[in-house]
């Protein structure tokens, strides 16, 4: 499943980058995130509870930041497993400065399996887009 988004921040790329790479900021804005801890080497472990339609499940996830170019871009590799299935994904995050503001563009590709995959592509797309929008709205409010 492909997912893209573009989000405007009233802050410099440096300030936005700090929020996007800080586990405390991230865990506060990831919907359903119960904990997030650093494993070192730009890798994190997280526990997230999600609800998609009738399915409610807790996932243990690993998130790795790769190809980091401070204040410009990075990649994310995400793997999550839970009783209702698994989620795997890769994202590219790019920051662009424009007159003291920063635009964050996200391009993601993910797959899921198990009960989650049976929910249906349309419901998963809608859920994923909603999660991404909620995350970035929270981050915008914390940075601006």
Please specify the SSE layout and strand pairing.
Layout: E1 2-9, H1 13-20, H2 23-29, E2 33-40, E3 43-52, E4 55-69, E5 73-82, E6 85-98, E7 101-113, H3 115-118, H4 121-143
Antiparallel strand pairs: 1-7, 2-3, 3-4, 4-5, 5-6, 6-7
Helix pairs in contact: 2-4
3D structure, described in words:
The protein has 144 residues and is α+β, with helices and mostly antiparallel strands. It has 4 helices and 7 strands, in the order E-H-H-E-E-E-E-E-E-H-H. The protein has helices at residues 13-20, 23-29, 115-118, 121-143; strands at residues 2-9, 33-40, 43-52, 55-69, 73-82, 85-98, 101-113. The protein has a 7-stranded antiparallel β-sheet. Helix 2 (23-29) crosses helix 4. The N and C termini lie far apart (31 Å). The relative contact order is 0.25. The mean pLDDT is 92.
Task: Please outline what is shown here.
This protein is an alpha+beta fold and 144 residues long.
Query: Percent helix among the residues?
Result: 25-40%
Through-space gap between termini: 31 Å
Average pLDDT metric: 92
Figure out the total of helices.
Answer: 4
Indicate the proportion of strand residues: over 45%
By helix and strand content, what is the structural category? alpha+beta
Number of strands: 7
Largest sheet: 7 strands, antiparallel
Order of helices and strands: EHHEEEEEEHH
Anisotropy-based shape: globular
Low-pLDDT runs: none
Widest β-sheet, arrangement of strands: 1-7-6-5-4-3-2
Round the Cα radius of gyration to an integer and report it: 15 Å
